[in-house]
Amino acid sequence: MAKSSFQALPGTRDLQAPDTERMRALVDVFAEEASAAGFGMVIPPMFEDVRVFDRLGEASDVVSKELYAFEDKGGRQIALRPEFTASVCRMFAEQRPITPWKVWYSGPSFRYDKPQAGRYRQFDQVGAESIGTNDPDVDTELIALAARFYERIGLTNVTLLMNSLGDAADRPRYLEALRSHFEANLDALSEQSRTTLAVNPLRVLDSKRPGDAELIEAAPVLADYISDEAATAFERVCSGLDLLGIAYERAPRLVRGLDYYTRTTFEFAAHGLSASQNAVGGGGRYDGLIAALGGPEEPGVGFALGVDRTLLACDAEGVFGAPDATMNVWVVSTSDGLEALSITNELRRSGLRADRSFDGRSMRAQMKAANRSDAEVAVIVGEDEAANQTVTIRPLRTDGDQVTVPRAQLVPAVKELLPS
Ligand code: AMP
């Protein structure tokens, strides 16, 4: 085949059925669970004033290296969203909805990441956020939403990692302790982490570089530095998870890529995937982000799950395959009239899955297409049927006899022949 002049850009993919159908089914499950728990869908724009995302923290890779930022024709500095939380918070700050504001979303995010399996430059996320309440039970409720979602899609090999980052006021003391620890061992630290250390020592803990692992293991633990209030809130979240039977591991060195997180922080790791892409989702509290975007001092908590990675994890566990897309009926017509058009339309209006061939192909070619479609029955209109206002219905997957019925009997007669 001749090579086309253009290819999809690195880190982007052309998705088609059945992958797209599977993705849609996954989002449908999430939508059902979120909606049943009182979360309303939001659709923020895919691009924003770049400063909305700058607030996520200059030390995060997402902002410093991976942002798709550019100037639009109006001279505005804008960026494609690298995630939804900042847009949702901007939306809250601008619209001031009644609190608690519980929302969910789905759609693509964009990061100039190094493309590899499970890491793309355009990838889909689903997520939920709850803004306007400090109640730690809300944190538990959100994690429980993700857990029900995993349960519904049949994913079991996922570990929930939990940590508390404490409050903003707890941070300086801990950062100081971390900085001293890493500075005392600067030679052992990777070059990239040394750069990160200068900007934000917390982010060094996020390094996945093998050389840094030992130093990170020996680093001071945040739990020793957080306030009593933050510690009590964290224990409340953990008790809630215990009560709901949601298993988790405490991960005292878990920090998240973005700087605005406070208190509860969590990540979902799928064991079926390799370490560099095993984070299928994550989230936490971000008390302070809304105020940083010019909104009121309202706390927030939320999470986002990577749709593409979740599906890779499903592949690894052999669960949540593509939904059945086979046709019920294939319409075959060798008459010159418009019968195929009206019959197919009538079948579809009655709720059946129906399709047909085009281009006036021979009976043989059309029957071949019918068989290839996996349809259970064929509805056949030849010259005789057209002249007599009848249709012939032929079972394709069973030994049953074909029947010829008046055209007006089409739908009930087809339904009779379909397996229930
Ligand atoms: P994050 O905001 O980095 O925690 O991202 C939330 C989730 O989105 C992650 O757990 C991943 O599942 C997914 N994700 C993040 N970056 C990418 C990417 N470049 N490609 C595919 N999925 C991603």
Keywords:
37% helix; 16 strands; alpha+beta; binds adenosine monophosphate; 420 residues; eight-stranded mixed β-sheet; elongated
Q: Would you tell me the overall average pLDDT? A: 93
Task: Count all strands and give the number.
Answer: 16
Backbone CA Rg = 28 Å
Q: What compounds are bound to the protein?
A: adenosine monophosphate
Note the total helix count: 16
Helix content: 25-40%
Q: Which sheet architecture does the biggest sheet show?
A: 8 strands, mixed
Order of strands, main sheet, comes to: 1-5-6-11-10-9-7-8
Distance from first to last alpha carbon: 43 Å
Strand content: 15-25%
Overall outline: elongated
Structural class: alpha+beta
Low-confidence stretches: none
